[in-house]
Design goal:
The chain has eleven helices and seven strands. By secondary structure, it is of the alpha/beta class. The protein has one domain: 3-Layer(aba) Sandwich (Rossmann fold), CATH 3.40.50.150. It has a seven-stranded mixed sheet with strand order 3-2-1-4-5-7-6. Helix 1 packs antiparallel against helix 9 and helix 10 crosses helix 11. The two termini are about 30 Å apart.
Length: about 280
Amino acid sequence: MGIDYFDQIWRTKDSKSSYKEGSADSWDNRVEEFTGIEPDERIVNITELLTAKRMLREDSTVLDIGCGPGRFAAEFARRAKNVTGVDISPKMVRTARDYAAARELQNIDFMEMDWRQDDLFAKQWKQKFSLVTAIMSPAIGSRESLEKMIAVSSEYCFLSHFVERHDSISDELKRRFLPPHMEDVYGNKGLYCCFNILWLKKLCPEITYIETARESVRTLDEANRHYISRLGMKTDLTDEQKADIRNYLQSKAENGLIRETIIGKIACICWKVAAV
C-alpha cells in the first residue's frame, strides 16, 4: 500500500462528515459558541506537550492553521517569538484579533485564508515557520493540504484531532435528528491516513494521546442556537425538527441552563520536516 492508497481513502467522504464543514459561512455561524472561552485543559495540555518536546520555544515562529477564535495561537504567543493564525472564517479571525488585543499580545497576527486554495508560495511562505500546527482543524483534509503544511515548516509540524468523543447532549440530538451513519472503522480517518502518509514519506511521525473531560454550561437560548447550528452543519433541518430540538433542550434545562459533559481522547501527531 502506497501513499496514493491512503490519499484515496482520505478523499472518500463518509456520511458522518459534515457536508458544510469547508464553508466560511458555517464557521461564521459558530463563532458565538467560542466567545468568552478561556484556555481549558486541551489548550494547556497541548501547549505543555509542544514545550516539553522543544517544538515550542522562545525563538519559535509559529503558524496555526484553522486557528478559529485564536485561543491556541494566543497561548503559543506567550512562549514563542511570533505567531500567525489563519482561518477561513472572517468572524473567527476578527474574534481572534479581539482576544489577542484584549490580552495585549504584540507578537501575534491573524488573517483570513482558505488553506486549501491559497497560493502559499506567492506569499513566500516556503519553510517560513519553525512550527506549523493544525489543531482540531478540517483544513488539513487531503494529501495536498498536508504537503502544503509540511512545505511551510522549517522544523516541526503538529496535527491533532479527537479519536474518541462523547458529548452527553450532542450525541443524543444526533441520534434523534441525523440519519444513521456507519462507524468510522479508522477511529479518525484523517489522522489514520495522515500518519500512514507521513510514515511512507519517512518522516517518522510520533503519536501521543491526551484524555480530556470538561463541562460546558449554556443558557437555554445559547443552547438552542448552538445545537441547531451544529446539527445544521450536518443536514438541512426542517422547522419542525428545530422545534423538536428546542423542546428536547427545554426538557434538559435546570434553572434555565443546559450542562453538557464532554469526554474524549485526542490523538496528537508530530514530526520533524528537517534535521534540527
